[in-house]
Design brief:
The chain is α/β, with parallel strands linked by helices. Helix content is about 40%, strand content about 10%. It has helices spanning about 1-10, 25-30, 55-65, 65-70, 105-110, 115-120, 145-165, 170-180, 220-230, 235-245, 255-265, 270-280, and strands at about 20, 45, 75, 80, 95-100, 130-140, 185, 205-210. The radius of gyration is 19 Å and the shape is globular.
């Protein structure tokens, strides 16, 4: 996923510097194996972590990024695809920027039930107006941005020790409340979580795939990931096709395009378009 995501970012924003952060084990594996990813990014940095499962190390790295990277930067999960110029994000005059979780309009729909339980168990307060998704976050080079990063890491460690869960989003939002950085709320087009609400994929600048499970290939992104995983080549033609497509789903036939356009008009997955989408899974 990181290779596909980085290649799309390079094609859509050729002037940005692409940095990949990794734990020591991953860093060593990439370097010793001369992974093709190294030729597609500008810098690979190593963030020291305690020993533990990959998910634990992943969240440790993620919550330490503000202290590990110089200057302002935009964090992107590996299951994102940047389709358009995003340079204006770096002009944001706030400490932190992020978009609503699930791309939901209503506050009640932004907080997953398991996250509510985490807040109750930890005794944390949450921001009263918005619940941020952790897949796309802009960090400015400010004292409060650094303070937020330190608080996020501290609270995530506390929640992991108490709940034995890797999920970092409750700690992220508790940190917004505790550290109180100035927050700029990004439009959903900058973090279009279309697997929750399909219509947000329309005119999206950054698509967020929620692609933890690589066995689903009902989008072009996931098909490209599967191709790479099976030893195939990641071509510029594949990346270009994804960037030019008006939607993220499979695009092999006229019927695909008709039903994908129908999904772009739907707030929820339902009807014949949803039936088609389920059939495209392999």
């Amino acid at each position: 996923m990181t290779r596909v995501s980085a290649a799309a970012l390079r094609a859509s924003n050729p002037n940005v510097k692409i940095v990949v952060a990794s734990d020591p084990q991953t860093y060593q594996a990439l370097q010793s194996g001369s992974d093709p990813l190294l030729n597609e990014i500008d810098e690979l940095i190593r963030i020291e972590t305690p020993s533990g499962e990959s998910s634990f190390r992943n969240r440790w790295v993620k919550t330490r990024l503000r202290s590990a990277i110089d200057g302002k930067f935009l964090f992107l999960d590996s299951d994102t695809l940047v389709k358009a110029d995003i340079s204006e994000i770096f002009a944001i005059d706030a400490d932190i920027a992020g978009a609503a979780n699930h791309s939901a309009r209503l506050y009640e729909e932004q907080i997953w039930v398991e996250d509510r339980k985490a807040f109750e168990t930890m005794g944390w307060e949450v921001h009263p107006e918005i619940y941020i998704n952790g897949g796309v976050i802009f960090y400015n080079d400010t004292k409060k941005a650094f303070a937020f990063g330190e608080e996020w890491h501290k609270l995530w460690r506390s929640s992991f020790e108490k709940l034995n869960r890797y999920r970092d989003q409750p700690a992220l939002n508790a940190s917004l409340k505790a550290a109180q950085p100035e927050l700029f709320v990004l439009d959903n087009s900058y973090n279009a979580q279309f697997k929750v609400y399909p219509s947000v994929a329309k005119n999206a600048k950054i698509l967020h795939y929620y692609s933890a499970n690589n066995d689903e290939t009902h989008t072009a992104f996931e098909a490209a990931v599967m191709e790479v995983l099976h030893g195939g080549q990641l071509t510029q033609a594949t990346i270009s096709k994804m960037l030019k497509s008006e939607h993220p789903w499979r695009n092999n036939t006229i019927w695909d395009r008709v039903l994908a356009r129908r999904l772009l008009r739907q707030r929820r997955y339902e009807g014949i378009a949803w039936s088609w989408l389920r059939k495209t899974r392999q």
